[in-house]
Amino acid sequence: MALLSSFISAGICSGRRFCFxxxxxxxxQLKQNAIILALNSGSSSLxxxxxxxxxxxxxxxxxxxxxxxxxSVIGGDSHWQVLNAGQQILIDQHKKFSNHGHALQTxxxxxxHTLPDxxxxxxxxxxxxxxxxxxxxxxxxxxxxxxxESLTALAPNHQxxxxxxxxxxxxxxxxxxxxxxxxxxxxxxRSALEQRFALPDRPELAGVKRYGFHGxxxxxxxxxxxQVLQQRADGKVVVAHLGHGASLCALHQxxxxxxxMTFTPLDGLPMGKRCGAIDPAVVLYLLQQGLTADEISxxxxxxxxxxGLSGISDDAQILLASVAPAATFALxxxxxHCAQSIAAMAAAMNGIDDLVFTAGIGEHSxxxxxxxxxxxxxxxxxxxxxxxxxxxxxxxxxxxxxxxxVIPTDEEVIIATQTLQIMQTHHRKTSC
Length: 432
Hints:
By secondary structure, the chain is of the alpha/beta class. About 35% of the residues lie in helices and about 20% in strands. The strands form two sheets. Strands 1, 2, 3, 4, 5, 6, 7, 8 and 9 form a nine-stranded mixed β-sheet that branches. Strands 12-11-10-13-14 form a five-stranded mixed β-sheet, sandwiched between helices. It is globular. Residues about 1-30 have low confidence and may be disordered.
């Protein structure tokens, strides 16, 4: 985060262009027309971004996103799309992709055809859980993969998908360096008071702690704050990453102080299909009622949240358009618990100066932002209705004690940043 924030706050870069200072020593020569691939793998999807790398004066390096896209419904009625830096759609096709390997082969062939003179330096992957071992990104090896596979039970609907992207690319490009970038790593700065559960110190409980997630998104927002909030950037900021998965993070001096997700991405806020925080005795009760562990997992991860509350959909926009009382209740429940958690984040920092909305719902749903803001008025938060409807960067009312912002996130930029950093570190170690 420090590296990325340093060049954003200095105003060196703008838009989606970022600079990486001093990343390459004389012994690691940057090849001409070099590119970095960033991948975010889902169970049936594959999001990607291509970054053009260029060496500037004084050994500075810049990375610019030149293409973004995704494969969706892999294994079914598949669809893939590619956009250029100007958001123009270059490819928009329905085509059968049998698996992630097939999708990656198609992507690599397209890259080779579109950028025949380019050199693919490395690929960075979003990996949700890095466990206790990884507080920063890591070069992928057999040992790293074995460890990450051991964490699958802690993120059952995320970890296998991320590892699937790694294995598919290993098969397609065995010699290509790959880097794992972890959602949990950003939160290692929190105190023991925040990371510990009130459990005894026993061997069988090793690794049972509050990890926190969405770290790549929070890392990007933390780096962006000086550009948007200016002198307020190092204050007490609560970031609301609200999408199909949702969490909050308390930032002070742009470091994680507290976060709503804990041991797994199931905890915290109610989400699209995930229940969020729940009394653990509910799980014991369901076991006593005869449900299996797999049935309970399916219930909590895929049948709850907005979908379970509404009985209609896990999509907030569909619920906003519905006149069904259950749809309204589901959204009010979501906003109510977001407001409660914002207060909890403020308590962890002994105050709050700014609130930032980001991710799909946070960036695009004025109605849900208003529902949450209304419940936070006691904190001195008031938003400007028109600014909120217009999705402006600052949606605060003139007399609001707190400033409220909408900042789009960009996890792929962080993946590219961390991939370059780790390549440099790995090269220095192996060159000694």
